[in-house]
Design goal:
The complex is a heterodimer. Chain A is an alpha/beta fold. In chain A, 40% of the residues lie in helices and 8% in strands. Chain A has 2 domains: 214 residues, 3-Layer(aba) Sandwich (Rossmann fold), CATH 3.40.50.700; 125 residues, Cytochrome-c3 Hydrogenase, Chain A, domain 2 (Irregular). Chain A is globular, with a radius of gyration of 22 Å. Chain B is globular and about 70 Å long. The chains are: A alpha/beta, B alpha+beta. Chain A: Its cofactor is [3Fe-4S] cluster; [4Fe-4S] cluster.
């Protein structure tokens, strides 16, 4: 069945429907092809490592070339291989590159998407063409019809905002709030952004589907499930109390090598990365919780078990708030159940 | 004199500004503008080293790989090796093989991305080689004029290489599966088989398309040399006379022998070569010398810091920024080896391992089919644009070949331990010396009371894009830009000056016309708003920065890493 635009809109609008996007993503382009009214994209890089750009380049079905030639459009009105502006792959440098940023603003109203990668810092910490990145962002935000913050840095501050945050770095939404600008920002955290999530979000915006967001501005379709409770294929090991204690050795749940799955909301186990090849936990590593506000500080040391986190860098008085605390309580219940079950097994064996 | 500024330099990692002071070159054919002095500065600061202080040392490799999302894997590896040196733990042979496989695939991705997407467009346009040029006319352009076909394939192949990284690392960018003493990923016959299968396709593309594309550019290079020599009336051989730097080349080595890890570790403690590794260590200054870790120092006279200048990485303190510092013009430090400017990167690696002549077999690892050799002789002992590109192609082929050996070897270690677990150490220091694709990479960690007390990273782009040092020596790229021609012509005009003949048939696009290369480019560039591509206007004059950008990009600048502690 070919996915029609109408059905696509319905599907994207449906909550908790993240699975379909994995199944149907090869049809996204077909649906978008009906939308001949091309969109304009400016991708700005602030205090970033460019990892999100590179992650975006890993998309498959549709791949980046299809996206750029069939979905987006530059100033020429032709389907071309470049967005209006994207620092890392754009042909133009220097003054022409700045012109392209300006021209994006005069793209058709209602059709301008702004993607921001990287943190926004205090003045002087990121200057492009003599203009502070803060100004680049504020300027572009005024013209943007949809704003997508990609990666941990642009959403919640990520590594550059980690303690002691030497540059007062913050995510885009916090920055805009501080500047008194009220415009919706779609937050796609993870470090880096998951390419699939970005492509689907772009597709949803272009096609006019409402992307429902959670309290942290994240699309519910990707971030409303708990990685450990709802999605982890290793959950049965956890329930049986079977754990890996040396990374790379043995079979079991990664909880004891520091897996933050229990306090992390993301569909990584389902969607995976790099053309659905794998994800951190499947490959054997602990989840480090990069989808969450407060990462990395609230989630490190990365190799410490979740209940031990309060003793580290994070402030224990702030930890008990919200879902984090609730989940910790949940883990406590599980731990009790596990130990009861184990005791029972021991008794039976005796 | 004019002051020509490129800001931002795009198609690199991070934010870079390049300022070029010009001078006039007078020859029998006229007056020409060339670069007299160049000044490079990074324009972004995040403070990663400051953020690391006080954290669990095992977290360092995860945080430092976020220094750069184009080359995260090398930062992870250099950091992990520093942690392991401090923890006094050695990875198992199987872990070393797995790391080689993961990082080998990563390297293939990186060199392909750079060769095709970052430096490829200018190279392809100058060499009149449409497959290297991005498909400006979209799908039609690819199909009808063979425009950008290699560019499009490169996107596909780099993705497949990264699928290998994800298989062994969980994801890319920012893989997650290393651990002090080994790997958290469990090697299986299934993973090895899948990797072999992906590598078979990747190898064929590298051996056929990438090597062929480079050969075509090499052929066109002679023509570029002749044409530019005639226009300027100077002796100019081609891209080997563009971007010459100091002729000093530094390499730390890459891909250790899993059965000889002690040789790999030895240069942390005494001068050496890491001869058992695929890529060896060395400090080339016209001849091959052993690499000596003690000879590295960082200078800050022209950097906006109040820190002491000329210190070894293990002695350096956290950065003390001072925007008002007089004479300073960059936030990058200036690392020096033996007080001299050294270039780092693929060319430095190839020269330190194989000397000036390279011969890499092109034998299909699966079928045994023999396609001879990729042979190359370094054309400019000071380094050049074409030599740097050649080194990148050579390294991609070399690693693609070697991947099959590592995979075969890994099979014989299956079932053995992949990790010797080591969780902590109270007090110690350690170095990790590795190579990012863009050059030599050093991480240093000092642990006190089980926590990170000090962390230093001396990274490739600080070597290549450093400002002047305390002795007044220009950085490698600053030096390489000196003498670069800034033509007062458009890109299309330059193309027509090199290739005046009309031999591009536009009939596949429905236009019955045969035009010159520049004429063919003109409408495409115009339609895309790129007619003024690489033109900087200064005092009413228009300077074309295409050649300067080729020089800059030949070093594969990675500025987020260079300014990990700095700002501009």
């Amino acid at each position: 069945m070919k996915l029609t635009r109408r059905n696509f809109v319905k599907l994207v609008s449906a909550l908790g429907a993240s699975a379909f996007l994995t199944t149907y993503k090869s049809d996204i382009v077909a649906a978008l092809e009906e939308n001949k009214d091309y969109w304009h994209i400016a991708w700005l890089n602030g205090g970033a490592c460019t990892g999100c750009t590179i992650s975006f380049a890993q998309t498959a079905d549709p791949d980046i070339l299809q996206i750029l030639t069939e979905i987006l459009v530059g100033n020429s009105g032709l389907p071309i291989v470049l967005p209006d502006y994207m620092e890392t792959i754009h042909l133009a440098s220097g003054s022409l590159a700045e012109e392209f940023k300006e021209k994006w603003k005069s793209g058709k109203a209602g059709k301008r998407i702004l993607i921001v990668e990287g943190v926004i810092q205090d003045p002087g910490y990121c200057v492009i063409a003599g203009k502070d990145f803060r100004e680049h962002v504020l300027d572009a935000v005024r013209y943007a019809d949809a704003i997508i913050a990609v990666g941990q840095c642009a959403t919640f501050g990520g590594i550059p905002a980690a303690k002691p945050n030497p540059t007062n770095a913050k995510g885009l939404a916090d920055f805009l709030k501080e500047e008194g600008v009220s415009k919706e920002v779609i937050n796609l955290p993870l470090c880096p952004v998951n390419a699939d999530q970005l492509v689907v979000t772009l597709a949803a915006v272009i096609i006019g589907a409402k992307v429902e967001l959670d309290d942290y501005g994240r699309p519910k379709m990707f971030f409303s499930t708990n990685m450990h409770n709802d999605l982890c294929p290793y959950r049965p090991y956890y329930d049986k109390g079977q754990f890996i204690e040396t990374p790379g050795e043995g079979e079991g749940c990664r909880y004891k090598i520091g897996c933050k799955g229990p306090v992390t909301w993301t569909d990584c186990p389902l969607r995976k990365w790099n053309n659905s090849t794998s994800y951190c936990v499947e490959a054997g590593a602990p989840c480090i919780g990069c989808s969450e506000p407060g990462w990395p500080d609230k989630f490190s040391p990365f190799y410490e078990e979740v209940p031990n986190l309060t003793s580290a860098i994070i402030d224990p008085t702030k930890l008990g708030t919200g879902i984090f605390g609730a989940t910790l309580a949940g883990i406590g219940v599980h731990a009790v159940r596990r130990s009861l079950r184990r005791r029972k097994e021991v008794e039976e064996n005796e | 004199m004019s002051n020509v500024v490129i800001d931002p330099v795009t198609r690199i990692e991070g934010h870079l500004r390049v300022e070029m002071h010009t001078k006039t070159l007078e020859t029998s054919t006229g007056k020409w503008t060339v670069v007299d002095k160049a000044y490079c500065s990074g324009t972004m600061f995040r403070g990663i080293e400051i953020i690391l202080k006080g954290r669990d040392p095992r977290d360092a490799w995860i945080i430092t790989q976020r220094i750069c999302g184009v080359c995260p894997a090398p930062h992870a590896e250099a950091s992990m090796q520093a942690i392991e040196a401090a923890f006094d733990v050695k990875p198992t042979p199987l872990a070393i093989l797995v790391r080689n496989i993961l990082h080998g695939a990563y390297y293939i991705y990186d060199h392909i991305i750079h060769t095709y997407l970052l430096i490829g467009p200018e190279l392809g346009v100058l060499a009149k080689y449409p497959p290297m040029v991005p498909p400006a006319l979209g799908k039609e352009g690819i199909a009808k004029l063979n425009l950008g076909s290699s560019y499009a394939q490169a996107l596909d192949i780099q993705r497949k290489a990264n699928e290998i990284v994800a298989m062994w690392g969980g994801k890319f960018p920012h893989h997650q599966t290393e651990y002090p003493g080994g790997m958290a990923v469990k090697p299986t016959a299934d993973k090895i088989a899948k990797t072999l299968s992906k590598m078979t396709e990747i190898w064929s593309w590298v051996a056929n398309v990438m090597v062929r594309d480079f050969t075509k550019i090499l052929e066109a290079n002679e023509r570029i040399g002749e044409a530019v020599s005639a226009i300027l009336d100077v002796d100019f051989r081609g891209l080997q006379d563009l971007g010459a730097s100091t002729g000093n080349f530094l390499s730390y080595g890459l891909f250790p022998d899993h059965e000889n890890y002690d040789d790999w570790l030895s240069i942390l403690y005494s001068p050496g070569y890491r001869k058992s590794a695929l890529i060896q260590a060395g400090a080339w200054d016209g001849e091959r010398k052993a690499f000596d870790l003690k000879k590295i120092e960082e200078y800050v006279k022209y950097s906006w810091y109040d820190n002491a200048s000329g210190l070894h990485p293990s002695e350096e303190d956290l950065p003390k920024p001072n925007k008002e510092k007089s004479d300073a013009y960059s936030w990058l430090k200036a690392p020096r080896y033996d007080k001299k400017v050294y270039e780092v990167g693929p060319l430095a690696r190839m020269i330190n391992t194989f000397g000036m002549k390279w011969k890499i077999p092109i034998t299909n690892p699966v079928t045994g089919e023999d396609f001879g050799y990729f042979e190359y002789e370094v054309q400019n002992p000071q380094g050049s644009v074409i030599d740097r590109v050649a080194a990148r192609v050579a390294m991609t082929l070399l690693i693609a070949n070697k991947m099959f050996d590592w995979l075969e070897e890994a099979k014989s270690y299956l079932g053995e331990k992949v990790t010797v677990k080591k969780d902590k150490v109270r007090e110690r220091e350690g170095f990790g010396l590795w190579e990012a694709p863009r050059g030599a990479l050093l991480h240093y960690i000092k642990v006190r009371d089980y926590k990170i007390d000090r962390y230093q990273a001396v990274v490739p782009s600080t070597w290549n894009f450093s400002p002047r040092d305390d002795f007044g020596q220009a950085g490698a790229a600053e030096k390489a830009l000196e003498g670069t021609w800034l033509p007062e012509m458009s890109v299309a005009e330059i193309c027509d000056a090199i290739y005046p003949e009309k031999d591009i048939d536009l009939s596949p696009l429905g236009i019955s016309k045969v035009v010159s290369w520049g004429e063919a480019l003109t409408p495409a560039l115009k339609q895309l708003g790129l007619a003024r591509l690489n033109i900087e206007k200064v005092n009413g004059n228009e300077y074309n920065t295409t050649l300067a950008l080729l020089v800059i990009r030949s070093f594969d600048p990675c500025i987020a890493c260079a300014v990990h502690v700095l700002r501009c």
